[in-house]
Specification:
Layout (H helix, E strand, L loop, with lengths): L1 H8 L3 H9 L1 H10 L5 H33 L8 H30 L1 H16 L8 H27 L5 H17 L1 H6 L4 H10 L1 H15 L8 H18 L20
Helix pairs in contact: 2-11, 3-12, 4-5, 4-6, 5-7, 5-8, 6-12, 7-8, 8-11, 11-12
Length: 265
C-alpha cells in the first residue's frame, strides 16, 4: 500500500531526531578543525557563559516567589501533588532562565554568529548563497528568530507547571525554539521569511527538535557549554545545508571524514 511505501522511504521519527541531533557534535568538529573561526567564537562564547549563568541564578532567585504564588500551601492539596508541582516549577524555571539567558546572548552576538554561519557555508559548499533581499532583510529575520527564542522562555515555564507531562512538553518547546533560532540565518539567506521558516521546521519537525534537544543538553555539559553559541551557529548551518542540498555534515566520530547520516536517505 502507499503508506507502507512512504514509511520505507522515510526513516522513523527517532532516527530522524538522532540525525538532527548529530549536527551539534558535527558543529564542534567543524569548529575545532577550522582555526580561522576561533577568534570569532570568543565573544559569543563569553556572552553565552555570562548570560546562561545569569539566567540560571535568576531562576533560583524567582523560584521562592513563584512557589508562593503558584503552589498551594500545605493541606490544600495532596502531598504528592504538591511535590510534583514544586518539582515541575523548579525544573521549568531553571530551564526557562537558562533559555532566556542563551537567547539574550545569541541576540547580542548575532552579527558575529551570522559571519560564522557564512564562513561555514562557504567552506562546506564552496560559496555562500546570497538572496536578492539583501543583508538587512536577513538580519531582520534573524532578529525575529531571536525574539521567538526569548519569548519561548515564559512558555517553557508555563508548560512545565503541568504535572508529569509539563516538563517534557516544555523542554520540547524550548528545543523547537532553539533550533528555529539557530537555523534562521542560513534559511534567510535562501529567501525564506518567518512564515516559510516555520513551514520548514514543520517539514523537518523531528530533525529540528532533535537538534534543539542536543543543544539544550549541551547547556548542562561542563566545558562543552562554553562554546554553545558558535557551535550551534555552525551546526544549524550544517543542518540547513544538508537538508537543502544533500551535503552531509562532518562525522564527529572521525575528524578526517565527512559523512553524517542523511535523514532523507
Amino acid at each position: 500500500m502507499w503508506f507502507e511505501r512512504r514509511r520505507r522511504e522515510r526513516p522513523g521519527i527517532f532516527r530522524r531526531a538522532a540525525a538532527g541531533a548529530w549536527h551539534v557534535p558535527a558543529g564542534f568538529v567543524l569548529l575545532a578543525r577550522t582555526p580561522k573561526l576561533w577568534p570569532l567564537a570568543i565573544l559569543p562564547a563569553v556572552l553565552a557563559v555570562v548570560c546562561v549563568v545569569t539566567g540560571f541564578f535568576l531562576g533560583l532567585f524567582v523560584i521562592p516567589v513563584l512557589e508562593k504564588v503558584l503552589v498551594p500551601g500545605e493541606g490544600k492539596i495532596a502531598e504528592q501533588l504538591g511535590f510534583l508541582l514544586t518539582l515541575a516549577l523548579w525544573v521549568g524555571t531553571l530551564i526557562a532562565g537558562m533559555i532566556l539567558g542563551l537567547a539574550v546572548a545569541l541576540l547580542l552576538s548575532s552579527p558575529i554568529l551570522e559571519k560564522i554561519s557564512r564562513m561555514v557555508e562557504a567552506q562546506v559548499r564552496g560559496g555562500v548563497i546570497e538572496h536578492y533581499r539583501g543583508l538587512g532583510w536577513e538580519m531582520l529575520q534573524s532578529f525575529k528568530g531571536s525574539m521567538y527564542l526569548v519569548f519561548s522562555a515564559p512558555v517553557v515555564l508555563l508548560l512545565s507547571l503541568i504535572p508529569l507531562v509539563g516538563p517534557v512538553v516544555g523542554t520540547l518547546w524550548g528545543a523547537h525554539a532553539l533550533a528555529f533560532q539557530q537555523t534562521d540565518t542560513p534559511l534567510a539567506r535562501r529567501g525564506r521569511d518567518f512564515r516559510a521558516r516555520r513551514a520548514w521546521h514543520r517539514r523537518y519537525r523531528a530533525e529540528s527538535i532533535g537538534f534543539g534537544l542536543a543543544g539544550l543538553v549541551t547547556l548542562f555539559v561542563p566545558v562543552l557549554n562554553l562554546l554553545i553559541g558558535p557551535v550551534l551557529a555552525t551546526g544549524g548551518t550544517l543542518l540547513v545545508i544538508e537538508f537543502e542540498e544533500g551535503v552531509p555534515a562532518p562525522d564527529p566520530a572521525d575528524a578526517g571524514s565527512a559523512g553524517a547520516p542523511s535523514p532523507s536517505s
